[in-house]
Amino acid sequence: MKKRLLPYLLAVVCLFQVCEVFGQEKISFFTPVDTFSKSRFWGLTGSAAAGYTGVVIGLNELWYAQFDRRNFHFFNDGAEWKDMDKMGHLFTAYFQSKWAMHAYRWAGLNRRASVWAGVAAGTLFQSTLEVMDGFSSEWGFSFYDVAFNTAGVTLMASQEWLWQEQRIILKMSAHRPNYSTSPLVAYNSEATTTLDARAAELYGTNFAEVAIKDYNGLTVWASANISSFIRKKDTWVPDWLNIAIGYGAENLYGGFSNAWDDDDGNIFIARTSQYPRYRQYYLGFDVDFTRIKTRHRSLKFLFTLLNVVKVPSPTLEVNTLGKVKFHPLYF
Questions:
Q1: Cβ–Cβ contacts within 10 Å for residue 17, how many?
Q2: What is residue 3's DSSP assignment?
Q3: In 3-state terms, what secondary structure has residue 269?
Q4: Are strands 259-261 and 267-269 parallel, antiparallel or unpaired?
Q5: Which of 279, 264, 259, 261 is closest to 322 using CA atoms?
Q6: What are phi and psi of 326, to 5 degrees?
Q7: In the chain, what is the straight-line distance between the N-terminal and C-terminal CA atoms, in Å?
Q8: What are residue 172's phi and psi, to 5 degrees?
């Protein structure tokens, strides 16, 4: 299954957010400096290089080494997972580059230089994973992944160049759908399973797994701050109010189709007529926690961490089945 590695990379975003907090806090060592600091720059760069090397070695030993290798090759995954895995690339690349940008601002680089440092860091890390994929027999180098990696990095950089702030931020929300527990009979035998069991096998069942792995319940959002696009200063719109556009998918029980086999060779098919694979588009309200004014450092820390997650709100859904739905409270 392509990109089972990706959800674990999404979890690293939380660490990036913690580092970003330290890059913004006005306290002692963590206070950004106005002029270039050679000691901070080389200390940060050395630590980043060591961390990068450690992560790559760790991923190779803990993940890629479990699969056979072959000569470098390409893989067309454009139709896989209804692009939910690509949303993960977009999300991860955005936060990696954003974190690196803030880190180098802390080291005293000017805005332009720190943005380029963020672009380089996000591109390097994501590209390294694609190259490693290219030598794995299970996958291959994907131009689609590269395109979404580039989009995530570009989203961060373009906003810094245009507005000197992040007016549009990426967020995520997740829930575990109510999967069917009705028996599903194998195509080539009398063995049975359920879609609930299949989802548990693919995505897990505990909160952490569901939050970052369950493509049927995961939504990736572009959350735009309303007041930052309004020039009028006395607008009634709160500084923290955002409007968010989300993307999700439903009935994904395999990468390209809803057919799979188990270890005993039993072939199962979730028929399209009953479980159609489709895309979902959402529109709802959100909160940019970092724009809530407070002098409390602990609250600033909490707000920055929370800003990865889309706030539950009344939401309108339009999907590719031609249906329009209203969710009183969607997460």
A1: 18
A2: T
A3: strand
A4: antiparallel
A5: 279
A6: -115, 125
A7: 26
A8: -140, 155
Q: Which of 259, 190, 247 is closest to 222 using CA atoms?
A: 247
Indicate the SS3 state at residue 316: strand
Instruction: Tell me whether residue 4 is exposed, middle or buried, using C-beta atoms within 10 angstroms of its C-beta: 0 to 12, 13 to 18, 19 or more.
Output: middle
Give yes or no for residue 201 having a pLDDT over 50: yes
For the stretch 111-135, pLDDT in tens is: 999 999 999 999 999 999 999 999 9
CA–CA distance, 225 with 305 (Å, rounded to integer)? 17
- pTM for this model (two decimals): 0.88
Which of the two residues, 152 and 212, has the higher pLDDT score?
A: 152
**50 exposed, middle or buried (CB, 10 Å; 0-12, 13-18, 19+)?**
exposed
pLDDT score of 13: 52
Cβ-proximal residues to 187 (8 Å cutoff; 6+ apart), any chain: 267, 268, 269
Span 146-175, pLDDT tens digits:
999 999 999 999 999 999 999 999 999 999
Tokens 């056979």: give the residue: 68
The structure tokens listed for 288 are: 């940019």
Spacing of C-alpha 251 from chain mean position: 20
Q: How far is CA 62 from CA 8, 21, 66, in A?
A: 12, 30, 7
At residue 26, what is the residue type?
Answer: K
Tell me the C-alpha to C-alpha distance, in Å, between residue 300 and each of 14, 23, 267, 290, 297. Answer: 15, 12, 52, 7, 5
